[in-house]
Backbone:
């Protein structure tokens, strides 16, 4: 009987894992469309590493990738380089690391759920996780190693739970390694992992019978090494990144708001006491933090207009009440007279859920689904726990328990069905334009006509970092790129003005004719505004005929929001 | 029992005095000008007032005090808890959403007053929820209520979700109702968040609060329906008025539980945090409310009328673009010493430049039409923060 039961769970686990993995891989190359800017950058840097061992800025195996000047974390790029080495550079290989992490996440959450609660809760949690819109979205984009980082955090938690159960030192060591790796995958790991590590140390010391030197020394060495590497990275990147996205800083909304309020009061003492960084930052941080547990964020009806923010709910509406009850019951468990080990494990789960929003809390535009992805998996665990506990409490009070379960099941199926329809049919059409649609169209043209033209020109009005797309789609040899590159470094950002046949200008206007060599065959891409400037000039200089004019003034993209024009001529 | 009633009467009397002090003395002059929405409401109610008097706001203030007293009475009638009744009185007196509504003339406060009046008289009847729902039919025309179709329900749902968001309720308020909110504050005080959770827990767990719980949940459902049937163009603070009221009652239950079941030290701490929170919030109201949203509070318009009166100008041409000023001038015509003519943009050059016998008041975008730059203009009327809005062009002979 027991054997049959185990097999039943195993079968269900396998089915859910396969379904979750299938949906994460299905149409991976086209939904979401792309590559978008960060994906192209990650892809080309990984390609460059796979080809030469150097990144696009010729640094050999860097600890952090400069990329556009935004300093990308290394782990995702190195893992992607391995896939590129074997399968080449394309949109699927650059998304593969995240999608694998997203799929394996299902197993990790099952193991955590079944160890802390029971197999039923573990299975329910991964059912919600496998079909989670939050997980779907972030498993399928690769601009950063967000899903990878979140997966590593969850695996670190699993290892710590294993350690608490078995007291085998290896698990604690693995927990540290995974958490440390998450710090090199995405910035959320740099905030969540050190806090988790500190609390794991504390719990392990409190739980150990006698003080074990091993418990301190080896982990300490690993942590020191990791922090040394982070310190080396940080001197380059973290402070500038924080200035860019954080809420703190002289020109940020918060500082300006304080100035405004003090201005109303002529900067008197009362105003300085009430309207200062402490009060305003405190209120903002508290509001930001709590918003991660609120309906607006979890159901997510916002239209972000951002490729790296989820347009789908974090949790299905029908599951929302059970998520809240799950947290409530979780706290209740802490105060129950259960074994210390069990309480420690539930405390860890709650702790992860409560600190996961911190990376998003300290940034502008909070709550951000991307920066709070460490909540992923734990939301589903508490939802499953809440659902099961609620029903076990109501078992004797409700007459038609099965009917309620059936209704919830049907509503869940409707939620899932609606989401799948949205994600695979509506989303690419409605939001496809956000995924560098013009840049990818230019790429198509360049790929097809690279040999036919002597110069390709387009401006930063079409795209702020135009150079990365030809590099990506032509799989441009890194050495050749370094030799022909003309670049500038302004305000912390790299500007590429030209390489090989490509020229990138701030704006397409009459001055571009100075940059063109005689007798060259030119392909010039413009947006609507630039078209209005350049078309009369081309006609005046008799570079295009009236017949050509008709063809060339037709947009290459069938989207009135993002017109793109190609003018071809010979000087 | 009798002792409790005396206590309740005492508390209500003190509540009346405190509310009068707060609303009619301390905060009587905030906001210090009239919003364009208030002008519309006064026209609807047939009220007439002077530019220099804010007495038309006595009506919403009195209604708010009535709502607070009746709510306090309601919680006592339903629970027989004197402490809860007093706390309800305090919570509603300092809840930012109700305070703001009481400081401005709006029609939704009438609706809430009638609902609370009905609640107190019908709370022992099982059908109270239907009677109160019936009120919407009476207010249908006035508040422009309409039965929604499926698409409107789908469109309104995200609003409901956003309105019930912790950040919106306690920290930021709704961005769509900016001018009717205390800056840096939500619909409730920050600290009210904890009592809200406690209140929900108590209402679910505690049998003694069942009957109050039923009223609160009934009100919440009515509030949700009201959200769906009210116009999407209406401000969210109005659309959520019944929901906010029910949430306030939950918060009061939470405070009562906290104060009843904690040590003296914790009680003192809760009281201290509450007082600090109130002080912080109402300082923001007193000094920053109408300055932060000076555009909506007609700062520039009021200022323009005052200054033009002082300049003893006889007539002014106003363009369509300056329609808001025209609205103020027409409504406060008893306080306006000049005549106004509406002119169209096509005649600007002719009337305001070539042979103008009247002053002209233009917006920035219209200056270019008569070949002027904003730097050429001496008299400019601006919003509080200094953003120029109206430019005064002198008469020809004064050029």
Residues:
């Amino acid at each position: 009987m027991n054997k049959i039961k185990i097999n039943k769970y195993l079968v269900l686990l396998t089915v859910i894992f396969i379904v979750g993995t299938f949906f994460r891989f299905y149409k991976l190359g086209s939904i979401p469309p792309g590559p978008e800017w960060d994906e192209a950058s990650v892809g080309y840097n990984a390609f460059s590493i796979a080809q030469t061992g150097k990144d696009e800025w010729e640094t050999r195996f860097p600890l952090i990738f400069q990329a556009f000047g935004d300093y990308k974390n290394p782990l995702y790029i190195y893992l992607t380089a391995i896939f590129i080495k074997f399968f080449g550079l394309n949109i699927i290989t650059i998304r593969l690391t995240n999608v694998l992490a997203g799929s394996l996440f299902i197993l990790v959450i099952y193991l955590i759920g079944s160890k802390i609660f029971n197999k039923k809760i573990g299975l329910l949690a991964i059912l919600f996780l496998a079909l989670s819109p939050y997980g779907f979205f972030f498993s399928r984009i690769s601009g950063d190693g967000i899903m990878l980082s979140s997966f590593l955090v969850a695996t670190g938690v699993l290892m710590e739970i294993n350690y608490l159960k078995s007291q085998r030192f290896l698990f604690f060591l693995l927990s540290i390694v995974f958490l440390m790796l998450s710090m090199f995958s995405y910035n959320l790991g740099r905030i969540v992992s050190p806090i988790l590590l500190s609390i794991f140390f504390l719990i392990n010391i409190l739980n150990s019978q006698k003080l074990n030197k091993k418990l301190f020394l080896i982990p300490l060495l690993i942590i020191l090494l990791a922090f040394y590497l982070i310190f080396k990275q940080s001197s380059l990147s973290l402070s500038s990144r924080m200035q860019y996205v954080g809420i703190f800083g002289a020109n940020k909304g918060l500082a300006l708001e304080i100035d405004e309020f003090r201005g109303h009061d002529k900067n008197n003492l009362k105003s300085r006491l009430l309207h200062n960084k402490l009060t305003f930052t405190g209120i903002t941080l508290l509001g930001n933090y709590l918003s991660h547990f609120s309906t607006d964020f979890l159901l997510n009806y916002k239209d972000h207009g951002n490729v790296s923010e989820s347009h789908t709910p974090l949790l299905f509406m029908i599951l929302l009440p059970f998520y809240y009850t799950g947290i409530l019951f979780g706290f209740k468990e802490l105060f129950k007279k259960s074994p210390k080990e069990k309480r420690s494990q539930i405390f860890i789960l709650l702790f992860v859920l409560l600190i996961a929003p911190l990376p998003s809390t300290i940034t502008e535009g909070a709550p951000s689904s991307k920066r709070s992805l460490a909540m992923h998996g734990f939301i589903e665990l508490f939802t499953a726990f809440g659902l099961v506990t609620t029903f076990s409490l109501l078992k004797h009070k409700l007459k038609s328990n099965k009917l309620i379960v059936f209704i919830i099941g049907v509503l869940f199926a409707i939620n899932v069905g609606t989401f799948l329809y949205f994600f695979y049919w509506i989303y690419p059409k409605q939001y496809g334009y956000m995924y560098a649609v013009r840049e990818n169209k230019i790429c198509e043209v360049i790929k097809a006509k690279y040999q036919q033209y002597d110069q390709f020109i387009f401006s930063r009005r079409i795209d702020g970092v135009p150079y990365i797309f030809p590099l990506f789609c032509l799989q441009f040899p890194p050495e050749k790129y370094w030799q022909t590159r003309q670049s500038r470094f302004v305000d912390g950002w790299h500007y590429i003005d030209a390489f090989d046949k490509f020229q990138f200008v701030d704006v397409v206007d009459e001055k571009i004719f100075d940059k063109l060599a005689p007798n060259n065959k030119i392909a010039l891409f413009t947006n609507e505004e630039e078209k209005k400037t350049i078309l009369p000039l081309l006609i005046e200089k008799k570079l295009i005929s009236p017949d050509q004019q008709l063809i060339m003034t037709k947009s290459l993209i069938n989207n009135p929001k993002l017109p793109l024009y190609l003018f071809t001529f010979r000087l | 029992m009798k002792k409790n009633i005396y206590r309740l009467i005492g508390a209500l009397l003190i509540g009346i005095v405190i509310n009068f002090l707060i609303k009619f003395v301390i905060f009587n002059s905030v906001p210090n000008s009239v919003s364009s929405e208030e002008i519309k409401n006064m026209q609807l109610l047939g009220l007439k007032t002077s530019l220099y008097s804010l007495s038309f706001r006595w009506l919403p203030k009195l209604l708010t005090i009535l709502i607070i007293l009746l709510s306090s009475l309601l919680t006592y009638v339903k629970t027989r808890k004197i402490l809860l009744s007093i706390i309800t009185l305090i919570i509603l007196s300092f809840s930012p959403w109700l305070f703001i509504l009481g400081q401005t003339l709006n029609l939704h406060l009438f609706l809430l007053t009638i609902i609370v009046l009905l609640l107190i008289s019908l709370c022992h009847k099982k059908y109270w929820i239907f009677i109160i729902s019936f009120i919407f039919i009476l207010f249908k025309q006035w508040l422009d209520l309409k039965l929604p179709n499926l698409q409107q329900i789908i469109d309104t749902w995200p609003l409901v979700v956003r309105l019930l968001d912790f950040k919106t309720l306690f920290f930021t308020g709704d961005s769509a109702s900016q001018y009717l909110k205390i800056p840096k504050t939500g619909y409730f005080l920050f600290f009210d968040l904890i009592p809200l959770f406690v209140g929900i827990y108590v209402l679910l767990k505690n049998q003694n609060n069942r009957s109050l719980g039923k009223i609160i949940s009934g009100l919440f459902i009515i509030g949700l329906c009201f959200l769906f049937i009210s116009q999407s163009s209406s401000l969210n603070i109005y659309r959520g008025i019944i929901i906010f009221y029910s949430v306030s009652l939950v918060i009061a239950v939470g405070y009562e539980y906290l104060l009843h079941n904690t040590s003296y030290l914790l009680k003192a701490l809760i009281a201290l945090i509450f007082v600090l929170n109130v002080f912080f919030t109402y300082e923001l109201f007193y000094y920053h409310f109408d300055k932060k949203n000076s555009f909506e509070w007609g700062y520039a318009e009021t200022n323009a009328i005052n200054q033009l009166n002082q300049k003893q100008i006889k007539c002014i041409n106003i363009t369509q673009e300056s329609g808001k000023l025209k609205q103020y001038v027409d409504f406060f015509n008893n306080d306006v010493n000049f005549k106004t003519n509406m002119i169209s943009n096509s005649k600007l050059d002719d009337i305001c430049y070539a042979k103008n016998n009247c002053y002209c008041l233009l917006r920035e975008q219209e200056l270019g039409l008569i070949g002027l730059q904003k730097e050429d203009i001496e008299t400019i009327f601006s919003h509080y923060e200094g953003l120029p809005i109206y430019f005064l062009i002198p008469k020809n002979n004064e050029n």
In short: Chain A touches chain B through 25 residues (CB under 8 Å). The mean pLDDT of chain A is 88.
